[in-house]
Design brief:
Layout (H helix, E strand, L loop, with lengths): L11 H8 L5 H20 L3 H5 L6 H21 L6 H9 L14 H17 L4 H13 L2
Helix pairs in contact: 2-4, 2-5, 4-5, 4-6, 4-7, 5-6, 6-7
The protein binds zinc ion.
Amino acid sequence: MKSADGTVLFGRSLLKATLAEREDPDVAVSAVCAHEYAHILQYKKQLMNRLQGGQPTVKRIELHADYLAGFFAGARKLQKADYPAAVYATKAHSIGDYMFTDRNHHGTPDERAAAIVAGFNASYRERKTLAQGIETGIGYVQSR
Ligand SMILES: [Zn+2]
């Protein structure tokens, strides 16, 4: 059997909180999973050093994962017009932080939601391929 590229662990408390959300909790769960799968893709494509770029925090890596999660939401919406893709931006916004000097700073709520929207537009409006989306996403986070 071919080995997996990675494993996503979903913390019980985050899962419980996400499932308790009022609007489309199942889609909010998929938004978190899409962000985590994006990290697996980043590792597989060996993008970490390029993304980190000597920055003191992991923010660019995290915003790139948000961008790719948004990219996925756009691809889903192309398949299914009523897919509630906006939930991705709402979820990312809700877990943004203001720990600017903390190494684990993931981006502010607004930065995270904006990365989701940019990724969404790259797939849904601009119809980029995943390979193109990965690269435009890198350009996006490097300009932040
Ligand atoms: Zn992350």
